[in-house]
Design goal:
alpha/beta, two-stranded parallel ribbon
Length: about 100
């Protein structure tokens, strides 16, 4: 059990956003015992009601204002999905984000 995932020599991170593929996952316990897997949830359900109110009333307006003032700059390096195997673990410059283009 877990032979295919044990080939990884680095932690595996699974980020689940939404539930279009289903509301639950099945995973063999052997995979969890033998691998450094981290499972994260994401989406509106991960915020408390107070956090969501604060985000919408304080953080989001400030974020939009920074973008409008051209003070919010995110440097990216765009790579093609076809090159994912090569670029997935690519070292990026500090502050730069890798973006995978599916087009």
């Amino acid at each position: 059990m877990g032979e295919s995932i044990s080939l990884f020599n680095h932690p595996v991170r699974i980020v689940a956003v939404g539930d279009m593929a289903g509301e639950s996952i099945n995973m063999a316990s052997g995979i969890l015992r033998s691998s450094p897997i981290e499972i994260l949830g994401s989406g509106l359900g991960s915020f408390s009601q107070n956090d969501l109110i604060a985000f919408n009333s304080q953080i989001l307006p400030e974020l939009f204002q920074l973008a409008a003032d051209r003070k919010l700059i995110i440097e990216t390096q765009v790579e093609k999905l076809a090159d994912i195997e090569t670029v997935w673990n690519k070292e990026m410059e500090a502050g730069k984000r890798l973006v995978i283009s599916i087009n």
